[in-house]
Amino acid sequence: xxxxxxxxxxxxxxxxxxxxxxxxxxxxxxxxxxxxxxxxxxxxxxxxxxxxxxxxxxxxxxxxxxxxxxxxxxxxxxxxxxxxxxxxxxxxxxxxxxxxxxxxxxxxxxxxxxxxxxxxxxxxxxxxxxxxxxxxxxxxxxxxxxxxxxxxxxxxxxxxxxxxxxxxxxxxxxxxxxxxxxxxxxxxxxxxxxxxxxxxxxxxxxxxxxxxxxxxxxxxxxxxxxxxxxxxxxxxxxxxxxxxxxxxxxxxxxxxxxxxxxxxxxxxxxxxxxxxxxxxxxxxxxxxxxxxxxxxxxxxxxxxxxxxxxxxxxxxxxxxxxxxxxxxxxxxxxxxxxxxxxxxxxxxxxxxxxxxxxxxxxxxxxxxxxxxxxxxxxxxxxxxxxxxxxxxxxxxxxxxxxxxx
Length: 405
Description:
A 4-stranded antiparallel β-sheet has the order 1-4-3-2. By secondary structure, the chain is mostly helical. The chain is built from 16 helices and 4 strands. The model has no long low-confidence stretch (mean pLDDT about 90). α12 (about 295-315) packs antiparallel against α13 (about 320-335). The protein is globular and about 65 Å long. The chain has helices at about 30-45, 50-55, 75-85, 90-100, 105-110, 125-135, 150-170, 195-210, 225-240, 250-265, 270-285, 295-315, 320-335, 340-355, 365-395, 395-405; strands at about 1-10, 15-20, 25, 115-120. This is Apea-like HEPN domain-containing protein.
């Protein structure tokens, strides 16, 4: 098994399944080699003062409590707070700190860091052996991995799948824009020791959470593994129960599109079209082009089928609003896909004029306000994809019937 870092820091007594079908699990580093790998990465990222100053980066926490840092938050004081607050509600946390009393500060963090495991079918170990043999012979070289190698394929599947899990698990409501609970998207990230600003920010967030074991805002619940664990296990089991040979490629493709939309696409227009394509993939079929206008037919399918499933998912939704929203979303998708950017601009200008100027307390420019209009469309599309996937999990046959008819 190989692993990739997540954004969760918490000691767990046993692995948590993400997908038993694909052999994806959340776990802590267990072997000394794994613990040392994460500790070394933390040491470089958290404890390289000369490079911090050189880069003008100083948002990392000091590691130890010293005379200089005693009045500030440090990694050591964070662990003290965490132990005090979480040991009261989780006996394993209490046991963890007893078992690791003599370990260094960063090693404790490494042992607590939650990683996502995937099956590399022994290829990574094989590469290490090959590399060692080459060094012993005095040879230089490198090993290239391509598509089809389990290290590449299964690590990509893991990070892709995490975006689908995150879409279904998150508690952020309309503030969700596709982020995953994985810190890294590449399986080799830990091999390159560097100052990792996202890792340092994750530890800073962990410091804030260490002060209490309670969640005060529902939007933040999914960011805390002890509070979301049971939901994650339930969701994992539900997904495993509806994935088989006939739909596995489709589910993995949707997962990949979700990751691409979040991690690779910066243009909001491109992102909107990509996300809408997920709904089209799940719900629309190719019409008979001899009988129907293809664009018009797919537009009607998109709006009708999406509205049926979104309403089925939430019967309190305003159907009038939903009808108009789906119309606007698909119209802008068509404007972007066909290069009608003037029409898109007209729509955005019209929507900006509807905004209450009193609410623009930051005095945002029209261009920024237009970006927020596009972001609002994207947020709603994420919500609709989630609703469709939830209904697919509940009744796959019904959703597939709806797609084909």
